[in-house]
Write a structure and sequence with these properties.
Order of helices and strands: HHHEHHHEHHHHEHHHHH
Strand content: under 5%
Shape: globular
Helix content: over 70%
Structural class: mainly alpha
Distance between the termini: 44 Å
Number of strands: 3
Length: about 350
């Protein structure tokens, strides 16, 4: 646990996760009877099958995922550095964007390194506790991203619909508070579901036809029928996804009405370019989440589940730096300074 806590220390501009280590340690070590209940499970490790194919296909996929991972780390890392080092970007909009990029680094790290290791491994095993830790971080980081997208939508709504009141409402203090709440509630949302899932019996088989430890494959391997645990998980997922999506869409409807009232074409174009990137990310991310988590997907083919999960956990973090910097002059200028491009 000490290693996990060491990895979760964040820079000053990316506050909100200082309590992450405490929460994770409490969930996995201080919960009464948590570790003792896992004794009844005879399974000590799981096998993540990942992606099928021969040796040549594995080499190709390893190269592809490695390139995507490095590109994602460099792209999002550059945004983090640009926001931290460029004084012009020390505004709520860019601080939120920097936190979002920082979150994406950890989100893709929760899956891709394990995928790469499996390509090089013959056994493709992951420890029992390691599997549930991956599940917890994977779901918690995705939930934090959902909440952060809501805060970003709120920021854009205030900036365009209430421009005169924006500096007094969206202060840096409020911005940091909202970011902190996103991280805290993101890591609290599925803590109970993770504990309930961990306490189930797993007596074999231990083969997971997926590249990540997720709810459906783990539930299918449990020896104890636990429909309530699964129902609670999907009800919670549906509520989080639908309520946040409705809030974001409602914000953009009001925003669109306000933009259409802007008299100058240049002003409308600037407003659309500012919000277009955020709306694109929302559509990509929420579209995949709706397909995956709003209704149980245990009857869907395993390959389809892999593709959907791959899209929102790997593809969107890879595309986000391109989407957010493509039409943003301030971010382009700051990135050129970071990358030393004249």
């Amino acid at each position: 646990m000490a290693k996990i806590c060491a990895m979760r220390r964040l820079p000053t501009h990316f506050s909100g996760s200082k309590t992450t280590c405490i929460m994770v340690f409490s969930i996995f070590s201080a919960a009464p009877g948590f570790m003792n209940n896992s004794v009844k499970s005879t399974v000590t490790e799981f096998v993540l099958l990942g992606f099928p194919g021969g040796q040549e296909m594995k080499i190709f996929l390893f190269s592809l995922f490695f390139g995507v991972y490095i590109s994602t780390m460099m792209g999002n890392g550059s945004i983090v550095c640009a926001v931290r080092w460029d004084q012009r970007l020390h505004t709520p909009m860019y601080i939120l964007l920097g936190n979002f990029a920082f979150l994406e680094i950890w989100y893709i790290t929760s899956t891709v390194p394990r995928i790469l290791a499996n390509f090089l491994s013959e056994t493709k095993t992951i420890s029992f506790v390691g599997c549930f830790l991956q599940f917890y971080f994977f779901t918690s980081l995705a939930t934090t991203e959902i909440y952060l997208l809501c805060v970003m939508a709120y920021d854009r709504y205030l900036a365009i619909c209430r421009p005169l009141h924006y500096p007094t409402i969206m202060t840096l203090q409020l911005c940091y508070l909202l970011i902190s709440l996103c991280w805290v509630f993101g890591f609290l949302s599925y803590s109970v579901s993770t504990v309930q899932l961990f306490q189930l019996s797993f007596c074999g088989p231990n083969i997971i036809d997926h590249f990540v430890c997720d709810m459906d494959p783990l539930m299918s391997l449990s020896c104890d029928p636990a429909p309530i645990t699964e129902i609670v998980f999907y009800i919670l997922s549906s509520l989080i996804i639908f309520l946040t999506l409705l809030y974001i869409l409602g914000s953009y409807i009001l925003l669109l009405i306000a933009v259409l009232k802007v008299p100058s074409a240049a002003g409308r174009q600037r407003a659309f370019s500012t919000c277009g990137s955020h709306l694109t990310v929302v559509c990509l991310f929420f579209g995949a989440l709706l397909a995956m988590y709003v209704s149980p997907t245990s009857e869907n083919p395993a390959e389809l589940q892999k593709i959907i999960t791959l899209f929102y956990s790997v593809v969107t973090p890879f595309l986000n730096p391109l989407i957010y910097s493509l039409h943003n002059k301030e971010m382009k200028s700051a990135l050129k300074k970071v990358l030393r491009i004249e």
